[in-house]
Amino acid sequence: MNASAAMKQYQHNYIQGGAETASPHRLVQMLMEGALDKLLAARRFMIAKDIAKKGENISWTISIIDSLRSCLNVEVGGEFAQNLYALYDYMEQKLLEANIKNDTKLIDEVAKLMIQVKSGWDAIPQEHHNITSK
C-alpha cells in the first residue's frame, strides 16, 4: 500500500474522540491522526496548486510534530526516545523541503514514516497505556 492510500485509510478510520476525556496514550494517537489528516490535505492542495492552503496544512503538520516531540522524555526513553526525536526533526525538514519544492513524494515519505510510528504506538498493549511519558 502506498503512502497516499495508507493516509486515506487512516482518514477513513479516524475516530473522533474528546480530548478532554482521552488518555495520554489516546491523545498521542489523536495527534498522529491529525498529522496524517493534515498531510493528506497538504498533498491535495499541492496537486491543486493552492499554495496558501498547502502551506497552512504543512505548517499545521509541523506544529503537530512539535507537540509529539514535546511528549518525549529522553531521560526515561533513552536511545529509543532520542531516535524518535531525530526522526521528528527529519520529518520536519522533509516537510519544509516539500513546501519549497512542491514535491508530493516528500509528503508521502513523511506520511509513511508517521504511519510506521503510529502503527508502533497503536501496538502498545493496553496495560502500558497509563505510563507517564514526562
Report the sheet with the most strands, covering strand number, pairing sense and barrel closure: none
Beta-strand percentage range: under 5%
What is the highest CATH level, the class? Mainly Alpha
Number of helices: 5
User: Which CATH architecture would you pick?
Assistant: Up-down Bundle
Tell me the span between the first and last alpha carbons. 35 Å
CATH homologous superfamily placement: Flagellar protein FliS
Class computed from helices, strands and strand pairing:
mainly alpha
Order of helices and strands, N to C?
Answer: HHHHH
Based on Cα principal axes, name the global outline.
globular
Which regions are unreliable across 5 or more consecutive residues at pLDDT < 50? 6-12
Kindly state the mean pLDDT as a whole number? 86
Count of beta strands: 0
The Cα radius of gyration reads: 15 Å
Topology of this structure?
Blueprint: H1 3-13, H2 24-47, H3 51-70, H4 74-101, H5 104-122
Helix pairs in contact: 1-2, 1-5, 2-3, 2-5, 3-4, 4-5
Distinctive features:
single chain, 134 residues, mainly alpha, Four Helix Bundle (Hemerythrin (Met), subunit A), 5 helices, 0% strand, globular
Explained architecture:
This protein is an all-alpha fold. It has one domain (26-122): Four Helix Bundle (Hemerythrin (Met), subunit A) (Up-down Bundle), CATH 1.20.120. Helices cover 76% and strands 0% of the residues. It is built from five helices and no strands. It has helices at 3-13, 24-47, 51-70, 74-101, 104-122. Helix 1 (3-13) crosses helix 5, helix 2 (24-47) packs antiparallel against helix 3 (51-70) and helix 4 runs antiparallel to helix 5 (104-122). The chain is globular, with a radius of gyration of 15 Å. The termini are far apart. Mean pLDDT is 86; it is low at 6-12.
